[in-house]
């Protein structure tokens, strides 16, 4: 037996002012779409904005349902929306922001497992990393250069493509 270690790498910015302009603008788009989230059950509103290589931006927010599992996170709606409309254009960056009705979100939001898997699908398909920007109410912002930084040991089954 030999113990192995995998490390993840991420950057922390103290404020959106430190981001490069395209990232700062994308985060602003994610923040703008938060207020339209449909989150009557959790009061937790999330906005996601995707920048494609062709320059287009797709935005979405979380959509909840009285049958809870039927709802969906902002990130997956945004990435499916983008790929449904622009399947040939690579995704460069996804920015994610959140606001809760009744409390302050102190730490940058981190996508759930299902959303990480959805991001992984398109990153593997396009063959280039999808940059991920995570933010909170407070200033601190986390930036990751690709889904493997959030989902190490991700499920890759190239063989399944032969079916
Ligand atoms: N949610 C997202 O939209 N994205 C995340 O990364 C985490 C959670 C949504 C799902 C649900 O509508 C609400 O936030 C509370 O979990």
Question: What labels describe this entry?
Answer:
6-stranded mixed β-sheet, 163 residues, 24% helix, alpha+beta, globular
Q: Brief description of this entry?
A:
With 163 residues, the protein is α+β, with helices and mostly antiparallel strands. Helices cover 24% and strands 23% of the residues.
Q: Helix- and strand-based class? A: alpha+beta
Q: What number of structural domains do the residues give?
A: 1
Total helical segments: 3
- What is the rounded Rg? 16 Å
How does this model look, in words?
This protein has one domain (16-152): Cytidine Deaminase, domain 2, CATH 3.40.140.10. The protein has 3 helices and 6 strands. It has helices at 21-33, 74-85, 113-126, and strands at residues 11-13, 44-52, 57-61, 91-100, 131-135, 141-145. The protein has a 6-stranded mixed β-sheet with strand order 1-6-5-4-2-3, with helices on both faces. Strand 5 and strand 6 (141-145) form a beta hairpin. It is globular and about 45 Å long. It binds tetrahydrodeoxyuridine (THU).
């Amino acid at each position: 037996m030999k113990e192995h270690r995998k490390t993840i790498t991420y950057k922390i910015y103290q404020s959106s002012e430190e981001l490069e302009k395209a990232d700062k603008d994308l985060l602003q788009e994610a923040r703008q779409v938060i207020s339209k989230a449909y989150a009557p059950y959790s009061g937790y509103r999330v906005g996601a904005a995707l920048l494609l290589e062709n320059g287009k931006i797709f935005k979405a927010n979380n959509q909840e349902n009285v049958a809870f599992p039927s709802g969906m996170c902002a990130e997956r709606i945004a990435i499916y929306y983008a790929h449904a409309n622009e399947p040939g254009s690579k995704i460069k960056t996804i920015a994610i922001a959140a606001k809760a009705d009744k409390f302050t979100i102190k730490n940058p939001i981190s996508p759930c497992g299902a959303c990480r898997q959805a991001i992984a699908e398109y990153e593997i398909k396009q063959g280039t990393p999808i940059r991920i920007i995570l933010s909170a109410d407070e200033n601190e912002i986390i930036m990751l250069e690709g889904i493997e930084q959030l989902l190490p040991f991700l499920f890759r089954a190239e063989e399944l493509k032969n079916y």
